[in-house]
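G., the chain you wanted modeled:
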Amino acid sequence: MAEDKCGVAGCDEVAVRSYAREACEQAGLKPENENARRMRLCKEHNKQFKKATKTDRKLETLGR
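Predicted structure as tokens:
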């Protein structure tokens, strides 16, 4: 089985998670493919994404 690569421009690591491309762009990650709906992220970029969206995710869970 072929492993998916990270969708961030210039990264060739193995992807561990995928998120909506728009959310990744808002978190400051530059996508390799501008037409893709989702972006796969490696472990390091996933950590950056989670750090950048921490307050948004916290507010969303409080609003439930």
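The chain has one domain: 15-62.

Shout if anything looks off.
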